[in-house]
Specification:
This protein has twelve helices and ten strands.
Length: about 250
């Protein structure tokens, strides 16, 4: 489900679970393990996906099969991956190789930098439209990137936005011409960071990202119960069943 590619001191961790890189328990666990290994073995990290699709977010059909206890454990592991990314000791760039809705961008907001192809590709947080809520840690990271007013509009409206709009508001840092150009550009970004005096760069990075660390320092996992409670509510389950039925037809 992952491809690991070393570009010298830069490690690329590529999501490889076709067709949509949907995040299930096995992929979440593999990603967390790969990130921790990269933290010890690489000088910078690229997180990439499939051409045209970084990740469609959580694997709803598979997660719908879980009871509340199993889902709660998986959900806490997913928040744990976000924590791992936020606290990575080396630069992390998200090579958003295509669409990055919901769970895909919930991870991306914790990176140092985000690159996306221009054109038809979309991102956004549509949780409210299916009866869910954006968790507190990624919401705080979103506010850090785009400001409170844009963050409010994104999570309350739940709209998907095109890459150009994402770049305009600061959710994405840079656009390139095609999905194939994203990883090469991410590699250049990493090399630029690594060309700086290393200790000064790392200390400065740690200082400027201290707010992301604090998000998790004060995070009580029981607050995630709101997401879990909504996931298992009758109305949300009905919406999710409808979504799964549409996915099976497509």
């Amino acid at each position: 489900m992952l491809k690991i590619i070393d570009h010298g001191p830069v490690r690329e961790i590529s999501l490889s679970r076709p067709p949509a890189n949907a995040l299930n328990g096995a992929l979440v666990d593999a990603l967390d393990k790969a990130l921790n290994a990269a933290a010890a073995e690489a000088d910078a990290v690229i997180l990439s996906g499939l051409p045209g699709m970084f990740s469609a977010g959580l694997d709803v059909p598979e997660l719908m099969e879980l009871d509340q206890s199993a889902f709660t454990k998986l959900w806490h592991r997913f928040i744990g991956v976000q924590r791992t990314i936020a606290r990575m000791p080396v630069p992390v760039v998200f090579a958003l190789t295509g669409h990055a809705p919901a769970g895909g961008i919930l991870l991306g907001v914790f990176g140092d930098y985000r690159i996306m192809p221009s054109g038809p590709y979309k991102t956004g947080l549509n949780e409210v439209k299916i009866g869910l809520v954006v968790p507190e840690p990624p919401y705080a990271a979103l506010v850090r990137l785009v400001g409170p007013r844009e963050a409010e509009a994104m999570v309350v409206g739940g709209e998907m936005i095109r890459a150009e709009r994402a770049a305009e508001i600061g959710l994405v840092d840079e656009l390139v011409d095609s999905p194939e150009a994203v990883v090469p550009r991410a590699l250049v970004w990493c090399e630029t960071q690594l060309a700086l005096p290393r200790q000064a760069m790392l200390f400065t990075r740690q200082m400027t990202r201290s707010g992301l660390h604090a998000v998790f320092d004060g995070y009580d996992e029981s607050r995630g119960d709101r997401f879990i409670e909504l996931w298992f509510s009758e109305s949300t389950q009905a919406t999710l069943r409808g979504l799964v039925a549409r996915l099976k037809k497509s």
